[in-house]
Each structure stands twice: as C-alpha cells, then as structure tokens.
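Researcher: We are triaging several targets before committing to wet-lab work. For this one, the compound of interest is adenosine-5'-triphosphate. I'm pasting the protein sequence and the ligand SMILES. What I need is the predicted three-dimensional arrangement of the protein with the ligand bound, expressed as structure tokens, so it can go straight into our comparison scripts without reformatting.
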Amino acid sequence: MSNTFQVDLRGIVDLLSHHLYASPRVYVRELLQNAVDAITAAEVPGLVSITTGPDQLRVTDNGIGLTEAQVHELLATIGRSSKRDELGFARHEFLGQFGIGLLSCFLVADEIRVHTRRAGAEPVLWQGYSDGRYSVSPGDEREPGTTVTLVPRRGAEHLLSGSTVRELAELYGSLLPVRVEVDNVAVTTGSLPWPGGDLMAYAQEVFGFRPLDVVPLDVPEAGLTGVAFVLPTPVNPAARGGHRVYLKRMLLAESIEGLLPEWAFFARCVVDSTELRPTASREALYDDGLLADTREAIADQLRGWLVRLASTDPRRLGEFLSIHHLGVKALALHDDEMLRLVEQWVPVETNLGHLTLAEFRERQGVLRYAAGDDEFRQLASVAAAQDLGVINGGIVYNTDIIERLATVDAEVRAERLEPADVAARFSAVDAEAELRLRPFLTVAQRRLDKLGCEVVVRGFDPATVPALYLVSRAAAFNEQFTASRDAADDLWGGVLDALSRTMPTDRPQLVLNHRNALVRRVTAIADPGLAGLAVESLYGQALMLGGHPIRPADAALLTSSFMGLLDRAVPGEDK
Ligand SMILES: Nc1ncnc2c1ncn2[C@@H]1O[C@H](COP(=O)(O)OP(=O)(O)OP(=O)(O)O)[C@@H](O)[C@H]1O
C-alpha cells in the first residue's frame, strides 16, 4: 500500500523559526528574493514596490506571475521550487532554490495572500493560512505579475511597520540590480560600490572604521568581486571578524565566516559572488570546494598586497606591522607565510639595535637569543661589547618564532645564548695580578661559599659593569633542584639526593670585572672584613642587575653587608 506524507505546517513553521532562521526579520529578504526572481524569469525591466500600512504589507512585482496550476503546484507544496532544473539543481540565474522561502512569512503573519497573473492566463488569488489550509479562487483583473499581501500577526506588527520594512529592504536589497521601492522611495542604489567610488567612506559607513588600505578582490571562478579593508587598529586574531557577503547582489549576511584564511584576521571584506552558494537559512556560505578555492584565491590577493607593499611602500608596510604585529606574530607560529613576513619585516629588539631577524642573521650568521627578558637585559651590553649579537627572546613570541624558523628552514641556525658563551670571551687577568688577587679571592670565596657561588676575576667590557652573576642552564637547574630538596620531606628528599649524584655540578659564578675601577680598589683592600662586605655587596648588586630571584639567604646577606658597610662608613663610636 502506498501513501503520501502529510505535512504539519505549524510544525514546519516552528522548525523554520526556531532552528533555521536566526530572526523573523528574514521574511523581507525572502519576499524580495521571490520578486526579483520573478522579474529575472520574465526578462522585463523590473520594479518591486513595497507598500506598508497599519493592517497589511504588500509586495508587488511585474515579474512572470503564476498560472492556477502553478499556484497549486508551487505555492502549496513545501519544498517545490520553479528555480531548479529537471535534475534538481539550482538554476543559475535565480536567488532562490529550496522552495521554503515563502513559509518564512508565517513567522510574522497568519495569512498570506498571493494575487498573481501570468501573461496570457487568468488572474488567481491564493490564500494560505498558518494552520495549513489554503484556498484558490479567481483573482481580480491585473497586469502580469504578483502581489503578496501579509496580514500581521498580533504582536508582530512592529516587524511589518514602514520603518522596519524600509530598513530591512535596504539592508538586504540595496545592491540589487532591480529597482526596489518602499512606500514609493527607492532603497536600491543601482550599482556596486566598487571598484570606483569613495571606498573609505563606504567602509566607514558599513564597518565604522577608516581602513588603513583597500585591497580589490576578484575571483572569476566564483564570479566574485569586492574589496578587503585593512583594519586601522589591532585586533585579536582569535576573535573572528565576519565579512559582508552578497550573493547575486542580495545580502547574505553582515558577518560571514570562512571567507578568508585565519591569518588574514586584519581584513574585513565586502564581496558579491554569483557562484558561491548559501545554506538553506541563507545566513552562511555553503562550505564546498568552491568556497575553499575562493578562500585560497582571496588569500593570494592579500598576500600579493603585502608583498607589493614590501617592495613599493615599505613605510605603509611598517605602519601595518606596527598595528598588527602581535597578531601577525601569533599566526607566524603556525603559518609559514606569516613566519616569512615576520622574518623579513618585523624589527625585534637586539643588543645591536632594532633589527629584523633576516638582518640579524645576515650580520651574525645565527639567530642567537636570550630566552628571557631578564637574561637579555643582563647580558645585552656585555655581549655587545664582545661583538656578540643577541636577540631579546623574552618579548612575546620571539623565542618561539626563532625556533620555528630554524625548524622549517635548514639554512637558519638558532642558538640560545648561554652565559658561558659570554664568559668565554672574557680575558683572564695576567699571572702577576692573579697572584696578587689570591688572598682577596680566598676571602671572597669563603664569604660566598655558603650561597653556592663561585667567585672569579676577569677583564671584560663595558668597564662600567663591576660584576656579573652568571647562571648556566645546568646551574639554574641545580639551584631549583637544591631548593626543592630543602623543601621536600625525608622520603622525597632521599629520592632527590640520589638523583643529585647524577647531575652536573657547575655552580653559578660571580664574575668581577677587573677593568672596573671600583672592583680594582675592592680587590686591593687589605682588611679581610671590609673586603668580604664589599664582595657581598657586589654579589647582591649583580643578582639584582640580572633580575635573578633573591632567596632568603641572599636577602639576609644583602642586609648584613649593607649594614656592615654603613657601620664602617659612618664615623663615630658606639656608646
Ligand atoms: N513573486 C512571485 N512571483 C512568481 N512566482 C513566485 C513568487 N513568489 C513565489 N513564487 C513561486 O513559488 C515558489 C516557492 O517560493 P519559495 O519562496 O517558497 O521558494 P523558492 O524561492 O523557490 O526557494 P527558496 O526557499 O530558496 O526561497 C517559487 O519557486 C516560485 O515559483
């Protein structure tokens, strides 16, 4: 036995309003679309005229109209559309295709009236109700075309008011190639705002900003033209910005995602396409191969813009990067194009001044970086004095970008600056001076032994730096390790003790600069007590200069050495 599906219209309308369309306001778009399609089918110079009033809304077109048979077939059959071919494919020239758009009127009205006439046929009046009934009767005499009348549902009157309808018709339809009037005033502009025109003003109007630059877009395979506006202020690349997309000049939505690759976060586009397809809700682009190709083509055009800027207008590129460098750098971590852009164009802080990574590599042969800001500050001037370039890897993403460059490009060498690299370039003091320093060094070493620090004297530039506290990575690990062992309970402490026997034992060093006049005077102090206090002070100063953590033992030492020096510096007798 074969039966036919029954359709519960209320259920379908509920489905549309709550699950398909984001807002009942889309009914204006659907009515406009049907009118424009009817005009396209009729191949006449068209006019869509919308009139509003307290009791009803009317949309009249001089399009192809419907015969009585078509009214039964098309208006009363959900999912039936005249805009698909025999094989069910959307016919290219039309906006609609799904055969459900008219139902959106039930989001705002309980009754839809369609008064229509096909040239050479009798006029027909179709009345459909949201409870699923419909009737067909002979219509009054009229010109070929169609008038759709909606009677507002109670509570939905504001959605059919003159001002709302005008706003919506303008929003969706302002670029349509067919003239559309609301209460006798045109809402259509008749032409696309690009390629000519005042696009700066246009961006201000639609997006509310004055772009840094305007990039024309053209993707013939998607029948796409438009513009990308480059944002004049920084944005978070993770916050997806939508694009304004028109399909066959009808607005799809103001905030469409997926049109640009993630790295192009700095652009907002307005485009019109004849080939891209909408989803059934007409609120998003259908995600197919054509959309992927289009995305790629737009990406190429934006990339081309960046490359062009680099060669023709570096000043503007600099401006662009100073606004968007954080986003560009963030994306450089997973996008090779952006990585190259950063390498070539984004200046980073180095101890040789601000340079791009490419410039730095050209001069130094290697991307040598200090992993943290503190490490950089401590070593920058000393390393520079030894002709050792170093990049501040402590600034956002720098270290990750440098390491990634070395991973993707075999030619690039990245090297983390080890304090030992700097120290290796220091010169030893001569044998005679060494001998003279010995008593001082013995005192100094005794004072700093309890802090696990080794004291050495070397000559290095700049002479203004009296002392450096150098911690190799192994020593830094050792320090942390000792701190956790001290804090651990017996069982865990035992495990850590056993481990410590397998660890390298190099200790942090306090390197006193023999070229520094003060240090030279300190090393010549005959009084061991005063020499000890001076070394402790230099130790404290070097710790702070390098931004090293001050442990409780260091703090105690700093206080006692300061008090000791003060005691000796201030004249007078204790009572
Ligand atoms: N103003 C009109 N003039 C002539 N025919 C119309 C008009 N409005 C609707 N129709 C006919 O009714 C059919 C159904 O319209 P409906 O809006 O439900 O779907 P559609 O436009 O085909 O597709 P979509 O769901 O994508 O909008 C259309 O295919 C068209 O044949």
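Researcher: Any quick observations?
Model: Residues 346-423 form a domain with the Rossmann fold fold (CATH 3.40.50).
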